[in-house]
Amino acid sequence: MTLLSSPRSGGPPADRYPPGSDAFPHRGLLGIAGLAPHEILFLLDEAEQWVELNRQRHKRVEDLAGLTVINAFFENSTRTLLSFEIAGKRLGADVVNMHAAQSSVKKGETLIDTAMTLNAMRADAIVIRHASSGAVRLIADKVDCPVLNAGDGQHEHPTQALLDALTIRHAKGIFTGLAVTICGDILHSRVARSNILALTALGADVRVCAPPALMPEAIEAMRVTPFHDFDAALKGADVVMMLRLQQERMQGQFIPSPREYRHLYGLTPDRLALAKPDAMIMHPGPMNRGVEIDSTVADLVGRSAITTQVEMGVAIRMACLDVLTRKARGVVGWE
């Protein structure tokens, strides 16, 4: 086991980061907010070895053998839960999925009681997804093991931002000066928030576009340029990231109709032509085809990176589980 790099070849160079655990000194991953740019890059670099492993026939290692990872999902998810489950199993961990519909929370148990129960089971890492902002931090404060935020309310979704950054880096190489347009329901999107925090920290020029009712107030404070005109936001873009309408978080009428929304904010082939000729297309899923994005665009060979995002998600989550459990595993330099 090496001192500063990952346990396998392909990890980040030892001289690029502070020594040992100082490269990523955080106990858990609750959000992108508070992470230094070099800490974000460290996780991206750590993920590269797992991208390589996942493309091989034999995809399992035993780095987390004997450790237990609990995926506690109080909010429904398919791709995020599956991605974390695959990540844990490919690292050799015992993975247990807890679904909210089957939990005692539905019977009136408080979130704190659930946190104490999970802690008593002596898990080595807990991945949490919850519909309420701040719920993940509340649990993290009550347990003794690392906690990873798999999405909490309208707050953050850090691993989504990391996998998106990794996808962009694989396609574009650098972040500095890249024009990234994020369009959709910015107001309710934790994905948008985490991506804004990560991409601006890494030097990208981030534009956000949404109808006035779906644009947060004072969004400029996050170092982005807001647009209500999608055509204007697309001009010269290197990356176009589309977001779905978060109907489940909307109270009241935010858009006239899905048809009108598509007319103004849907990514069509004609609209995509306004971006750079090699602009990549992204979407965190699930997609509403024919609303925020046309199928011809979503499936555009050589331009759409949507399936690549899914692939990078497994690698990023493997990297996060690996890094956050190194202290428990006694990895040299992480005591």
Write up this protein.
It is a single chain. The two termini are 13 Å apart. The longest helix is centred in the C-terminal third of the chain and has 19 residues, at 306-324. It is globular and about 55 Å long. A 5-stranded parallel sheet has the order 7-6-5-8-9. A 4-stranded parallel sheet has the order 2-1-3-4. It contains 12 helices and 9 strands. Residues 1-10 have low confidence and may be disordered. The protein is 35% helix and 13% strand. With 335 residues, it is of the alpha/beta class.
Which keywords apply here?
4-stranded parallel sheet; globular; 5-stranded parallel sheet; 335 residues
> What percentage of amino acids are in beta strands?
5-15%
Distance between the termini: 13 Å
Structural class: alpha/beta
Number of helices: 12
Alpha-carbon Rg, integer: 20 Å
Described by its quaternary structure, the protein is: single chain
**In total, how many beta strands?**
9
Question: Which term fits the overall shape?
Answer: globular
Topology as a string of helices (H) and strands (E): HEHEHEHEHEHEEHEHHEHHH
Helix content: 25-40%
Give, in spatial order, the strands making up the sheet with the most strands. Answer: 7-6-5-8-9
The pLDDT mean sits at 91
Low-confidence stretches: 1-10
* Sheet with the most strands, sense and barrel status: 5 strands, parallel
